[in-house]
TrEMBL record:
This is Mini-ribonuclease 3. PANTHER family: MINI-RIBONUCLEASE 3 (PTHR34276:SF1). Involved in correct processing of both the 5' and 3' ends of 23S rRNA precursor. Processes 30S rRNA precursor transcript even in absence of ribonuclease 3 (Rnc); Rnc processes 30S rRNA into smaller rRNA precursors. Homodimer. The gene is mrnC. It is found in: Cytoplasm. Residues 3-127 form the RNase III domain. It is an enzyme of class 3 (hydrolase). The lineage of its organism: Bacteria, Bacillati, Bacillota, Bacilli, Bacillales. One of its GO terms (molecular function) is ribonuclease III activity.
Length: 129
């Protein structure tokens, strides 16, 4: 199966789960706290606003390969028929773009590149906090 041909929102759906799991593992091992505190911390990393800001930082560096930039653009421009919760459409689209790249890397079994990206996301958010 050619992963690039998947709907970018499908890639974002997968990427959301991958990022959420990575963040949960990170904060559980770092904080060793109660679930409510863990949930509050995870929102710093996985909210649409945080992901949009992180994407902007990564693009400025520039961090992404040409292939990943193509996935980002497709993810950002995809028409979603669900309404963004607690954010504007532009922020939601940027967030979906980042998640699409994560989903793409995951489904392509590019574990090393995926781990570097996920760790970079954690690092960027930590610097911002």
């Amino acid at each position: 199966m050619n992963i690039k041909l998947l709907n970018p929102l499908t890639l974002a759906y997968m990427g959301d789960a991958v990022l959420d799991q990575h963040v949960r593992k990170y904060i559980v091992l770092k904080l060793r706290s109660k679930p409510n505190r863990l949930h509050q911390m995870s929102k710093l990393y996985v909210s649409a606003k945080s992901q949009a800001q992180t994407l902007e930082t990564l693009i400025e560096e520039p961090w992404f390969t040409e292939e990943e930039m193509d996935i980002l653009k497709r993810g950002r421009n995809a028409k979603s028929y669900t309404k963004a919760k607690n954010t504007d459409v532009q922020t939601y689209r940027k967030s979906s773009a980042l998640e699409a790249v994560i989903g793409f890397l995951y489904l392509e079994h590019r574990e090393e590149r995926l781990k570097v990206l996920l760790d970079k996301i954690i690092e960027i958010v930590n610097e911002r906090s």
